[in-house]
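Let us practice reading a record.
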Amino acid sequence: MSSRDVLEPLDHAQFLSSDPAPQAHERIMTYREALFESMHEALERHEEVVLLGQGVDDHKGTFGTTLGLAQKFG
């Protein structure tokens, strides 16, 4: 196997849109909002989901990605 097999140049054109404006069904949100929403949804839908890590129960909401989740889901 050569490095060429693994490190092929990325074709950036496939990721670019000629119309960068969001479609009617799309929403624009911050990275923080997307993380919060996805974790909230996972915790709400699946009882077996557990969040682990430093700052998960951040009462000050320093980053805001888990703000209120510990209180709501325990």
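A brief commentary: Helices lie at 3-6, 31-45, 69-73.
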